[in-house]
Specification:
416 residues, mainly alpha, Growth Hormone, Chain: A, 78% helix
């Protein structure tokens, strides 16, 4: 295959991967907001709502651990579109919930459905991120950073659209119909899977179980930092913040549309910043270059004081709507830089033959952090409110910063 033909094929594959990920992401964001608002309106406590997402995060950890092995042995097309198929199943299962069941039965049923959604999410994420590494040459570091930022940034922006979509569909069609409409749309995307090469990501050799644990010091350190970084976001954003916005007694008393739109705007803005991270991090008058270890160290420690500042502003009596909005904007911008550089570094530290295994291991740590954040978000909010969640977030970011100090530079390139 000529160089031009190879580039055209790689670009086609990139478009297919991105389109599949986009479609999946819309439903992933919509499910979260739809389930959260629906069950909060039914009178579930913050901790009970957090438990609805417990299996989503738990099975995400397990999936990422095994998905890299599955992708390396059977190809990334199977894991990517297998994840989309599971999401269709999860949407239908959630839509078949019988609200006449006892509360405990409903909780368990939704937890099981969310387990399938969690498996689907991490199969799709691991496959998409790994596949990008295979369609961009390792030596093209700045292009790899750009394409990863485009994929990840657009995904997060669309997840924000999904938040709005979930809230809007809940108000417009109701809980059940909203889920069935999403399942039908995602099934159409599932049919495009035959256009992606079946052997993408296969390494052609057997991998022993012990090889599922990364042997790379760089990947291990980066994974530990990722665990604490994403725990720090979810501990106040996933359950505590939307419940605070909706709660009329101790919060702001907003309706479904207001909460969904507000959360959507933040995630869309966060995704846009992540999308343009390579341009925003580029020094004026210099060519675009790939990040180094000190890039992530700087932006992680820059993030540390933001949740603490928001909590202190609450204590000082500043109106909460101003505190939250201003704090979210600053937090979102700095967190987006962190996430974009993280997503690049895991691929920069990885060789072609190990990409599925290393990315799966790395996103297992990501899911572990989200699991910690989700559970603690409901638990801490129930006893200590939103400020308590913000203080815990500060501690988690500090831990991420400490781990990032041990990272070496990727081979090649120059620092930003």
């Amino acid at each position: 295959m000529t160089s031009a033909a190879a580039q055209q094929s790689n670009f086609k594959n990139y478009i297919l991967i991105t389109a599949a990920y986009w479609g999946f992401t819309l439903t992933d964001g919509a499910i979260r907001m739809l389930v959260l608002l629906h069950f909060n309106a039914l009178g579930y406590t913050p901790f009970q709502i957090a438990m609805l997402f417990l299996f989503y995060e738990v099975f995400g950890v397990v999936t990422n651990f095994l998905a890299g092995w599955i992708g390396s042995q059977m190809g990334l097309r199977l894991t990517l579109y297998g994840g989309i198929g599971l999401q269709v199943f999860a949407l239908v299962m959630l839509g078949l919930l019988n609200q006449g069941w006892p509360v405990l039965g409903q909780v368990v049923y939704v937890m099981v459905a969310q387990a399938f959604a969690g498996i689907a999410k991490d199969l799709t994420k691991m496959s998409s991120k790994s596949a990008i590494r295979l369609v961009v040459p390792k030596e093209a570091e700045s292009r790899l950073f750009k394409w990863v930022a485009v994929l990840t940034g657009s995904k997060n922006a669309l997840k924000g659209v999904g938040f709005f979509l979930g809230a809007a569909l809940l108000g417009w069609l109701g809980y059940r119909n909203a889920l069935f409409v999403q399942a039908a749309a995602l099934f159409v995307i599932l049919l495009t899977g035959r256009f992606l090469p079946a052997d993408m990501g296969k390494i052609g050799k057997k991998v022993r179980f012990r090889q599922l644990f990364s042997k790379s010091r760089e990947i291990n350190i980066l994974s530990a930092a990722r665990f604490f970084l994403f725990g720090s976001r979810d501990v106040w954003f996933v359950v505590a913040l939307p419940v605070f916005l909706y709660d009329a007694e101790v919060g702001l008393g907003w309706n479904f549309w207001q909460v969904g739109s507000y959360m959507a705007c933040w995630v869309i803005g966060y995704g846009i910043v992540q999308f343009f991270a390579p341009q925003l991090l580029k020094k004026k008058g210099q060519p675009r270059i790939a990040p180094k270890a000190r890039t992530i160290q700087f932006w992680t420690f820059a993030l540390t004081g933001i949740p603490a500042a928001i909590a202190l502003a609450f204590r000082a009596g500043v109106p909460p709507e101003y505190v939250i909005t201003g704090g979210l904007i600053i937090f979102g911008i700095i967190f987006a830089f962190n996430s974009a550089v993280h997503s690049y570094l895991v691929l920069a530290y990885t060789e072609d033959q190990d990409v599925a295994l290393n990315v799966g291991f790395y996103y297992m740590a990501n899911s572990g952090g989200r699991l910690l954040g989700t559970v603690m978000s409901g638990l801490i909010y129930q006893f200590y409110g939103l400020p308590g969640c913000l203080w815990f977030s500060t501690l988690l970011i500090l831990a991420a910063g400490i781990f990032s100090m041990k990272l070496p530079d990727p081979k090649g390139g120059s620092a930003i």
